[in-house]
Amino acid sequence: MDFNKFMLYINILGICLPVALTYVIIANLIIGQPIEPVTIVMLAFGYTVMIKRNFVFQELWRKWFSKK
Length: 68
Hints:
By secondary structure, the protein is mainly alpha-helical. It has three helices and no strands.
């Protein structure tokens, strides 16, 4: 597999996983399950990495929210 294609897949997963973890936390709040502190740390770390380092997220952000 091409390295660039592999990095594209990794960056796509870097977007999907924090979003999915957000929904898991919301579901845990609704059904009354405990939320582990490590989950909140992973969520914060995931969003930080996604916003700062993920070039796919940055490109999508510019495409969706740029004024033309």
